[in-house]
Every structure is written in C-alpha cells, then in structure tokens.
Amino acid sequence: MAKDSMLSGMGNLSPDAAKMSDAKSRVSMKDLAALLRFTGTSKFSIVLLILAAILSGGLQVVAPAFLGATIDNMGEAGNVDLKYLGIRASILLGMYLVAAVFTWVVSYFANVVAAKTALEVRKALSKKLTRLPVSFYDTHPQGDTATHFINDTDAISEGMLQGLLNFFTVMVTILGTVGFMVFISWKMTLIILPMAFLMIWSATTIAKTTTKYFKSQQNLVGSISGDVEENLYGRKEIKAFGCEDKFLDSFREKNDRLNKSSVTAQFASSLPNPVTRFVDSTTYILIGALGVWFGGLTAGNITTFILYWKNFSKPINDLTNITTQVMAAFASLSRVFKILDLPEESEDPTTDEKSASSEKATSELNEKHSGEGEVLFEHVTFGYTSDKKIFDDFSLCVEPGQKVAIIGPTGCGKTTLMNLLMRFYEADGGRILIDGKDIREIPRSELRRRFGMVLQETWLLERSIRENIAYGRPDATDEEVIAAAKAARAHGFIKRLPDGYDTIPGKEISLSEGQKQLLCIARVLLMDPDLLILDEATSAVDTLTEKRIVEAFDNMTRGRTGFIIAHRLSTIAGADQVISLGAAKTK
Q1: 10 Å Cβ neighbour count for 354?
Q2: Which domain, by its residues, includes 221?
Q3: What is the pLDDT of residue 264?
Q4: Amino acid 317: pLDDT
Q5: C-alpha separations of 495 from 324, 458, 491 in Å
Q6: pLDDT at 12
Q7: Separation between Cα atoms, residue 349 and residue 353, nearest integer Å
Q8: Is position 539 within any domain?
Q9: Would you say residue 461 lies in a domain?
Q10: Which long-range contacts (CB under 8 A, 24 or more apart) does 445-450 make?
C-alpha cells in the first residue's frame, strides 16, 4: 500500500538525483582536455590554423632582426643610401603584410573551430538530456538547464576563440624570439627573461583567483534564467495572487548578487593588465639603460631587443585583456561537463544471456500485441529516498482489457505508480510484469512504445495542429489525423479555426486548456497503443468536454488495458477496478 506521499518524497532528491547533485566539477585542465574531443570535426581547420600561426609568428620574429641589421648598416655607411633604404623598407613592409594576411587566416580558422566546437558541445548536451533519467528534470530548474545550451556554450565558444587566436602564434613568437635574443646577446637575454617570467607569473596568479568569481557569476545567471522561466510559465498565477512584487523582490535580490559578483569578477580580471604593463614599461627602460653598458649592443641591436620585448609582452598583455572571456569560458566549461558527467538512465541488459532474454520478452510481447495486456505488480517497494517509501510491498493484478481507476489524495503516489510502470523510475524491490514478462527485461523503447499517456499538463509544439496530432506518427495520412481528431471529439473546434488543421497553436490563435487536452488525446489515439494511461487529463476541462474525453477514452480502451488517474467520480464511473491509495504516517 502507499506508505508516504509523493510530495514528501520529492522534497528530497531521489537516489539518482542525489548522485547528480553531488557530481563534482572537473578541474580546469581536465575540462580543457575533455573539450578537445569536441574539436574532432575541425582537424583540417586546426592544421591550417597552426600552419598560419607558425608563418605569422615566424615573420614577426625575423622582422625585428632584419630592421636592426638595416639600422646598423645605415650607421656604418655614414650616410643614408635611399635606394638601399627603399629596398630594405619594401622587404620589411612585405614581411609585415604577409604576417598580417596569415594573422587573418588564424583569426578565420579560429572562428571556424570555435563555432564547430560550440556546435558539437550543444549536440552532446542535447544527446545527454535525452538520456538523463526523469529524476533529473524533477530536481533541476528548466531555466538553468536551458542556460547550458545558450550562455555556457556561447561563453565556451568565445573563450576558445580568444585562446586559439593567441596560443599558437604566441608559442611560435616567444620561442623564436628567445632564440634570436640569445644569438644577439645572451647577457641582455638574462635580464629580459626574468622580467618575462615576472609578467607571466603575476598575470596567471591573479587570473587563478578570479575563477571562483566567474563560476559564481555563471551559476547566478542560470538561477535568474530559471526565475524568468518560472515567471513566464506562471504569469497568470503570479498576477492572480498579486505576487508581482514578491517576484520582483526575489529577482532584484538575485540580480544584485549577480551585479556584485560580476563587478568583483571584472575588477579581479582587470588587474593583470595594468600589472603587466608596468613590468612592460620597466623592461623598456632596462633595455635602453643597460643595453650599451652591460650588453654591448649597437643601436640596431637595441632596436631589435625593444621589438623582441614587444613580441614578448604584447601576447601576454593580449592574454590578460581576454582574461574575462577565458575565465568565464572555464566556469561555463565546468558547468557543462557537470551535466555531461551525470549518470545516465541505466542501460537495458547488454550481456548475451540478458540480451537473449530481452529479445525473447520483446518478441513474446509483440505476439501478444492484440487482446492481451495483463499487468501485475508483485510486492513492489519504491521510495525517492531510502527513509521515505511511497510503496511498501504493493501488489496489484490487472486483467487484460480491464479499465483500472486509481484514486487517492494528492501526493499519495498515483502518478508514481505509472512512472514505475513505464520505467521512468526503477522499483527498489519486487517486480512489475506485463503479460508475464518482467519489464526490466524489455528495452525501454519497446516498453514505452506500447503505452499511450495523456498527462494533466498539456504539451504542444509551435507547429500546425496536424503536425501536433501526428507527432508520434509523422507518416500518418491526413485521413488518419482527422479520424483521430474526430475520435477525440476535437474535429469540430479545429474546423472552426481560421486555418483548420494548419493553424499553429499559441502563435496564430490561443486555445483553451480543454482544447489543448483534446489535441493531446488525439495524438495518443493516432498512435493506437496497447496500454493507455489517462493522468488527470480531465482536470482542466468543463463537464461537457470531460464527458467527451471519457467517451473517447472508453472507445479507445475497448479491448485494451487502461489506467485512469482521477479525482472526479464521473471520470471513473465505468472502471472495472478502483484502486484507492492513501498516505500513511511519515517515519
């Protein structure tokens, strides 16, 4: 019998949901390594990007040495040779022009790789969300989940783009620059390199401290998105209860926290740039002051060293300028992989023995497609948490073709019973059998294909009424769609709509809750399932519409096993069995 209410059970996370809530984010380097697998479709673009970065960086390394040699040769000549100067200037201009072209190539392919990576991340998230158990959606706000698709993937794309634009070119430029500086003067190189390490250390140290602020910022963005989604979904209730101010107060509180977190994150991420620029200016002074006295450099060598230091400092300054995007990307990356790392809905049996059993169960169930439909609950135990049981030693036998009504107070487990039957949740103990076969031995896709379920909450796509009815059978003919609508008593009001079956609900016209419910019933009727579930489907309709729905359901269940979850006695008048569930005392 029912031992606790569903609502009290849902007050705590289910076992799967508890695992999800405890899932730890990977550290940044692991996140970055995992992200690389999403760049697999961009291998060609990455190769071209690297080649362009090598050529661009190489030219930027050679150009300063070429300029320094030109200055020294001009000084040795004692006068200015305009022809010589023009040739050297043209060559130098050509170097920078070609370097600029390759820099553009790097930018283009960095955009390509970033966009394709964001595409693959969204695909992975979409695929993951189809495999997560129902408990995930019961315990996670829709707005926050949607944020992973929009804000987080955009942040990853932007951060990856900025990183790709700098990483490869920076590596080539720095390595080449160090080599040329050592060749010109190893003494001056010993002065410059510690300054470079000081710049890098100060930038990275400050940047690391900002990560937590950006994680907090992204989490608050997700929370606010969830609040906005709730406001849009429940706008009528909010207005009806006069809770606009309450919602605004909650929104302002979170928005203020987001503002403070964002300001702190932006302030912390802005510190590396002025620090590195101070080190940058100090190094220019050291090169000029110590170049001749300590390093024995010529005027051309000093010019070359100044340009080489610029090659060092500019990429580092550029990296500090994009700290905001990079840190936000790491925070979003952690959030995305927190979803991708969640445990999926348990797989169907995969061993040879269990697979054979599964295939046999599916085959035998297919053979009993018509005229059968025995459902048996044997000593079923289930609870959303281990200390609160919804069902404890629950048993029920439903004969083929029977219509069973399930009644009871709100939260007693009526919908939970159907969720167990469709394997949205797995029973903690006991068995559930259909035609003598344990449902755990039947693949979920096969099992759920046999059910038609009409829920209390209507769900329609922003597509034509014809497409909504044919959602489960897109290959259905117009005649079949119309026949299903007539059986659901929906054909009459559909024909009165401006565009009939081509009308788009919610966009071209607003439908009542009862009309939406009739369309959902028509959708199930078109599927012609073996077993039917009507879960409070008449709660939002008038008496006349309820009568039509019950008539349609009676016709639909003739010769099939059907379950009706309802509070109204009129809805269950023709039931063969009435199962009353009650909530017992909490432990």
Answers
A1: 13
A2: 23-340
A3: 80
A4: 66
A5: 56, 21, 6
A6: 36
A7: 9
A8: no
A9: no
A10: 446/362, 446/365, 447/422, 447/423, 448/422, 448/423, 449/529, 450/365, 450/529, 450/530, 450/531
Q: Which helix (H) or strand (E) holds 552?
A: helix 543-557
Helix (H) or strand (E) holding 562: strand 561-565
Length of the chain, in residues: 587
Amino acid of residue 447: L
CA distance 44 to 47: 5
Q: Distance between CA atoms of 227 and 254, rounded to whole angstroms?
A: 10
Number of domains in the chain: 1
Structure tokens at 176: 């080449």
Give the model's pLDDT for residue 380.
92
Q: Are 513 and 501 in contact (CB under 8 A)?
A: no
Pull the structure tokens for residue 497. 């709509």
Instruction: Note the pLDDT of residue 432.
Output: 92
Give the pLDDT of residue 574.
Answer: 75
Q: Which residue has the tokens 């500090």?
A: 320
Coil, strand, or helix at residue 185? coil
- Of the candidates 437, 367, 376, the one whose C-alpha atom is nearest the C-alpha of residue 402 is 376
Rounded Cα distance, 468 and 398, in Å = 32
- Rounded Cα gap, residues 289 and 312, in angstroms: 19
Look at the alpha carbons of 403, 409, 415, 418 in this order and tell me if their dihedral is positive or negative.
negative
Residue 73 forms part of a structural domain: yes
- Written as six digits, the tokens of 113 are 């790789």
Residue 331: the pLDDT is: 75
Q: Sign of the CA dihedral 196, 201, 206, 209?
A: positive
b/e code 469-503 from CB counts within 10 Å (16+ = b) = bbbeeeebeeebbbbbbebbbbbebbeebeeebeb
440 domain residue, yes or no: no
Residue 503, SS3? coil
Residue 271: which of 196, 215, 201, 323 has the closest Cα?
323
Per-block mean pLDDT, blocks of 10 residues, the chain (587 long): 36 37 44 68 80 86 84 63 81 90 88 84 84 75 70 78 72 81 81 80 72 73 75 69 76 84 78 76 80 71 82 69 69 80 67 43 41 84 81 89 84 84 88 90 84 80 88 88 86 89 81 83 85 76 71 73 78 80 56
In sequence order, what DSSP letters do the residues of 56-118 get, joined into one string? HHHHHHHHHHHHHHHHHHHHHHSS--HHHHHHHHHHHHHHHHHHHHHHHHHHHHHHHHHHHHH
CATH number at residue 263: 1.20.1560.10
Which tokens go with 504? 């788009």
On whether the pTM is more than 0.90, the answer is no
